[in-house]
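User: what does the whole thing look like in 3D?
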Amino acid sequence: MRHVEWHQPRSLDEALELRSSYGEDAVVVAGGTFVGILMNQGFLRPARLISLRGVPGLDSIREEDGVLLLGAMVTHRSVERSELVRRKWPALARTFSLVASPRVRNQATVGGVLADADYASDPPAMLAALAARVVIAGKNGEREVPVEDFILDHYTTALKEDELVVGVRVPDGVRQAVYRKFRSRSSEDRPCVSVAAARYGGKTLRVVVGAVAGRPQYFPDVCALAGGEVDAGIIREIARRYAENIHPLSDARGSARYRRRVMEVEVRRALEELYGV
Amino acid sequence: MSDPRVTGQTRYSRDVEIEGMLHARILRSPHPHARILRVDASAVPDDVVVLVPGDVRELNRYGCQIKDQTVLALDKARYAGDPVAAVAAPSVERAGEVLDLIEVDYEELPAVFDAVEAAEEGAPLIHEEIAISDNDAAYFGLRPQPGTNVCHRFRIRHGDVRKGFEEADVVVEETYTTAGAQHAPMEPHAALARWSDGRLEVWTGSQTPFNTRMDLAGLFGIPEEQVRIVCPPMGGSFGAKTFVRLEAIAACLARKAGRPVKLVLERDEEWLTLNRHPSTIRVRLGAKRDGTLVAKQVECWADTGAYADCGPGVAQKMGFASPGPYRIPNVWVDSHAVYTNLPPNGAYRGYGQMQCTWASERTMDLLAERLGMDPLELRLKNIIRNGDRYCTGEVMHDVHFEELLRKAADAVGWQEGRRGKGLCVMLKGMQTPSRASIAVEHDGEGNYTIYCATAEMGQGAKRAIRLMAADLLGAEVERISFPDPDTDAVPYDTRTTSSRSTHMMGRALEKAVEDLKKNGRRGFGEVADEGGLDPDTGQGVASSHWHQGAAAAEVEVDEETGKFRVKRLHAPVYAGRVVNRPGAELQNEGSMIMGLGTALFESISFSEGQVSNANLSDYCLPAADDLPDVFTHELVEREGAEVHGLGETALPPVPPALGNALHSLGINVTDLPMTAEAVLDALDRRESSRCRREPPGREGAGRKFCVLAFGISAGVLLAGLILRSRRDAFGRARVQRRILR
Amino acid sequence: MRLAFEVNGEREVVEAGPDEMLLGVLRRELGLLSVRETCGIGVCGACTVLLDGEPVSSCLLLAPLAGGRSVTTVEGLGGEHPVQRAFEEVQAFQCGYCTPGMILTVIRLLEEIPDPEEDEIRRYLGGNLCRCGCYVKIVEAVKLAASELRSVARRGRT
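Assistant: Here's the predicted 3D structure for the full assembly of 1176 residues, as structure tokens:
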């Protein structure tokens, strides 16, 4: 048997120490589903594993001054079922509930899904639409990065080698949000196009399209069209511009050409739902 | 006394273990077509046994219908995934680790990935020789075309289609394609081989113990009695676990190692082992104005991949079922099994008859549209009845096509309106000729044992046979045991395929029980169905009895995305006599669900011959929530009838029923699967053909370019058209389109 | 490394590599062959076990993560669990390979939703693939088990 090291730090400091020491030579394990897939497929053969399971304080869901704090080790299932999230951020609870199967949701975590930066994951788009910020811990303390700036490309984030995702902060002020998950094939399929859209009190709109490119797609200047009266025409225009601005990929769930067509339809439908038009 | 399936106690072929066994992995060619210049395993450490081409070069070729396989690719790799070497090590992990240490030099060759292209002159030649096998599975006249990539050509020549088409008032023609698919049984392929005293024993999940025994004996050049095949239950198969698959490699490693060797495929390797034949099928159909069919010409190209396996048989069945259950005085069929540089294709539930039914039944609706006829009426006008002759010349008996078709139509309320609805009726042959034998033993204390080669893959054949035995013997079914097939212990059976087992074994069982009653302790029964077709004319007996099924579907389309919902799906099939009702229901439902997968989203993607979606996320299987809103089926029985096999019948009718339902909406899809993207493309074609024929503004079109291109005119006429198009009556909408043409 | 955990009510201590998945450990060290390998990517459900009562994919669970926790497989159900009986009565299986995973998932489903609607059942079981296509009968079995468990609960209360 190959010699593989298993590290189970008992505090955040200890975990950060390990991250500093090993950097990319150690794989961080939150829920472990993504790491498991990579290992089973032979893409990853880590010599060292750092489990965050024993680090206290990473698995809470709480509200502080109206802001939702989800710890990095909170499972998808916990978000789905949280009375607090369902009451105040229902679209977020719903988005987490749509991920894969109960099994995956029992294991996969909030921190993991962000750090993995898999383009077809659901939560990042919704979190970005809700203006959420990733909370990152490093040797020099904590910093926050908006979700849409945190995920840079396929499996690539702004996380440095000596840092760890410790949670996500979701601000309040959302008037309403919707999440649409368009599957082109089976009911269990990963999305072909996903659209997260959130309306804020001050006539702010945030639309984020996921599953179509390496990172969630957000165009604040297009969303600014919703700054005034929003009617069917404005909605169609926002949808059209999103489709124009995005360069979608092709995969098993649809070609780039098909995605471009569906994106426009789904953005429009999300906005129609959001504005009751 | 709980069923081992709910207690988790079932031991599948994957679970078989023998003390001291080694674990094997296969090294595969990354190139779809390449000369193998050098295989160097010198870097592999001593605790691992390696199999290289030199170890197997002297062994004989094998193959169930064409002898075109060698244990490892010798001079040429013929598909990306072709086994080039293999290792056996103390653990699977170790075996996987050392594969990379084997160096192979290749010289790439031009490759071909499409059957029609591969059949043409000048295509890269994949096999220099095409020798017919002497395996029992080569039970029909084979017609390989040496010097080409065509390993079998089957023909039907009934009447004269040239005259027929001249006599026709209307002729429609279309070309269809169907994608490859993967059986994806939940349990992967697994085999364990052991030699003792020159005798080979293999534990392998397989539907074909005797055919496998024959091929293994042949390749090693030993008598069949020196080979024993034991078949544990399979975690699904659907045709994947047939003929020699892993057994030869495992056996060669075991012989070299002097220890038992177990070989289990990784999931992605399933796509590199056996898949379903992609097809291209061209249909030309001619009829009189009143709908009487007068001529049908079909050409099929079945892509059998790099090795023939049972591709000739599939092409043959695809060919002889392609005319459909109709009276047609002139029928010509040319069906080809063609080599390409893709992974081998073989038996897959439906066995070629899904592909040809798609082409045939879609064409019927094309014809109905052209004639302005109700698709149901067109079918009923020509449907085969008892006593009619099929285009093979055989007389059809115990025929129920009309009944099945009417039941299907009723289930979707055909008479209330046809918009969004589609029908299909089909016939499928059963392996003919074939032989089945069974033995029954009595221990003198009321306990019986059945010796039968029928393999269990979940289809419930064992239970059905036990129930039949219980009935015949007047005993309780719990007193009847049915051990796993073991070629040392059971009498010969052709194989567990073609939905033949309950029918053939049922008949053999009757004789065995009679024999037992006469002899006391042991009874033996054998039946043989004669028949077969002349491969050059397609005349003779294609099937000693026919599987008959129909389906009807109702769909609702999201015209902005092409995604459609199946509101209703109903499949009545002729069962003759049902022995094991829950089992029969499960078979029907399972076949229909597999049909849904085929129809909607199952498709193997290739990129330069490499499978690009070899996992269960990128390759999509039907899940629990994919069932139609209303999902029903019927088992049609007849007093005094024989048991009819049900393992496959409800699969082929599903895709055409859905395709025809889309067709009723003007959405014409000719390729399977009918993905959302394909439907959207078809919607675009519908809209552009409407724009060419009609003024803009038609209800449901919403195509801005139409409006821009033609301008707005004839407003009143336009309003009238929009109002009329809202009506449900398919007939009226069609009449309306004809007026506008 | 040493892995100590509870399996089917018994405390077990086994050897496992830190990079091994729980699936392999359960099969190899404890002979629990009802836990099966099929897809390796957590989509099919054949490897389902209950971890502290919740279904997880054992093919994606690094063995050390199960340390100190309780694992349940169908071998631990005794053969007479109402869900097992319901599956058998309805005959909600063919080859049986996916059945243990289904049963464990259904157990948890009925704890969360004691009186589920058909669409709730289908959604919950979406991640348990059955290639034999037994979904219709599986849903029937779930409804039967649900009603059986509800009447057991009612009897328990009186």
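In plain terms: Chain B is about 30% helix and 25% strand. Chain B touches chain A through 24 residues (CB under 8 Å).
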